[in-house]
Amino acid sequence: MRPYRNPDDYQVVDRFLVELYEPGDRLANWLQPRWEYMHAHSNVDNVDLGSIGIAEDDEGTVVGVVHPEHSPATCYFQLRPGHSHVKPMLFDWAEAHMGGWSHSLQRNMLGLYVDDADSEMQEIAASRGHSRSPDWGEHHARMSLYAPLPDAPLADGFRLQSLADDNDLAKVNRVLWRGFDHEGPPAAGEIPSRARAQRAPNYAKELNIVAAAPDGNYATYAGIWYVPENRVAYVEPVATDPDFRRLGLGKAAVLEALRRSQQLGAEIAWVGSGQKFYLDMGFEIVAHSSIWYSYLDD
């Protein structure tokens, strides 16, 4: 095990995740776009990237990574197949270097996301005194892009366009601020964060679709990340302004973004959600990770 060296190791882990992806009905590790979006999002400033641990074999090949996302309280495991022997080492690193304040629980905790299909990781978590939460976790859903995608009718007066057509950061900020149910007017101070996200290496404006309302504001935002090496599309983020919900705009925008990814060569789409919105569109939940946790202030 060794500590992550920022920024040199960003690309190391990036390529590691691309190598790990295997087409199928499970998602044992993160997709590369989630790692990229993690670093492009301003919330990454809330965590210490130096807390990330990397497991390497004798030849210096990465075989495992343990890391937070946007909160120091929780962490994730990425593991190369055939290297189960490093699992206890990854737990050792997490327990020594991670954990922190949970705003939702108002307590210090260490939360470990563990794949529900990995009984060995679950046994390690339980043996070390961590408890599985029945309420917290993440769904992973997939959708085949081999067949033509259905059309989604658009409400009168609305139009779909990409950010390659019109990239108004104030409008992007407005729809994401309101779409994720933040209170009050959109914070202008968030606009630099929106620009920062668009500077991610693989951010493609033509794959980020908005539904423009009759008044010119963006009513829905649907983002797609495409990984050509894996022929995978990753849906993130998606939000609709509360004033324009229940009009089918989100479905129309996501399907248009997926259609464009399909034209580039995407064969599978993934989303980190189990919401009915995605299931009705054709996604199917195929994996789930639960949080195993311990409180640090007992």
Q: Care to give the gist of this entry?
A:
This protein is of the alpha+beta class and 298 residues long. Helices cover 28% and strands 29% of the residues. The protein is globular.
Which SSEs are present, and which pair or pack?
Elements: E1 2-3, H1 8-20, H2 32-40, E2 53-56, E3 62-67, E4 74-79, H3 87-97, E5 100-102, E6 107-115, H4 119-127, E7 131-144, E8 159-162, H5 169-179, H6 191-198, E9 209-212, E10 218-227, E11 232-240, H7 249-264, E12 268-271, H8 276-281, E13 284-295
Parallel strand pairs: 4-6, 11-12
Antiparallel strand pairs: 1-2, 2-3, 3-4, 5-6, 6-13, 7-12, 7-13, 8-9, 9-10, 10-11
Task: Please trace the helix and strand order, writing H or E for each element.
Answer: EHHEEEHEEHEEHHEEEHEHE
Indicate the radius of gyration in whole angstroms: 20 Å
User: What is the oligomeric state here?
Assistant: single chain
Classify the helix fraction into a percent range: 25-40%
Global outline: globular
Structure annotation, total helices: 8
What's the β-strand tally? 13
Q: Helix/strand-derived class?
A: alpha+beta
- Specify the biggest β-sheet: 13 strands, mixed
The residue ranges in which pLDDT falls below 50 over 5 or more consecutive positions are: none
Mean pLDDT: 96
Beta-strand residue fraction: 25-35%
Distance between the termini: 28 Å
